[in-house]
Design goal:
The chain is built from four helices and four strands; from the N terminus they run ααββββαα.
Length: 168
């Protein structure tokens, strides 16, 4: 809960502005406050009913970059390849002297004499959300179904932030 970023939640409802200032906005503040109150009530229902489940998986692997690619290994000596992760460089036009970056630029190259590491995580916080939202729609509660999906999205993002903090 403390990791929820509310600004994208309001954007889902086409209300734009930084949170929490949006709650006092002279144009959309009243609507934002009502929406936020409804979200708090839905959160209580989600948590009390355990409507959705969150899952996360974390992994760390020895890695080396080769050009724009990142090579992952199953051993510290980097002798047992697991996979090659092909990356693109940024595609935007940059001013002269500014390079287009690739994720591979942040992993030690294979020719420096040591290996680096890469960590990844995958999260979901929507297990059960689709079924509950479908039931709401069947009960003609489209608002509730949209609210549930918007909050499940925020839960997934919050779990990603919590996992990022944990691995740091």
């Amino acid at each position: 809960m403390p990791y929820i970023d509310w600004q994208p939640f309001f954007q889902t409802w086409d209300l734009h502005g930084p949170y929490p200032a949006i709650l006092q906005d002279p144009v959309v503040g009243d609507t934002a406050q009502k929406l936020f109150a409804d979200a708090q009530q839905m959160l209580k229902r989600i948590l009390a009913g355990r409507w959705i489940k969150a899952h996360a998986s974390i992994g760390f692997w020895p890695a080396q970059s080769q050009g724009d690619d990142i090579h992952l290994y199953s051993d510290e000596a980097c002798s047992k390849p697991l996979m090659v992760w092909h990356n693109l460089r940024q595609q935007t036009a940059k001013k002269s002297g500014v390079a287009n970056k690739s994720l591979a630029d942040y992993v030690a190259p294979n020719d420096v004499g040591f290996s680096d590491y890469i960590g990844m995580f995958a999260v979901t916080a929507g297990d059960g959300a689709d079924e509950r939202a479908a039931q709401m729609q069947e009960d003609h509660d489209d608002y509730g179904a949209i609210m549930l999906k918007a909050l499940a999205d925020r839960f997934a993002e919050a779990l990603a932030e919590a996992m990022h903090e944990r691995v740091r």
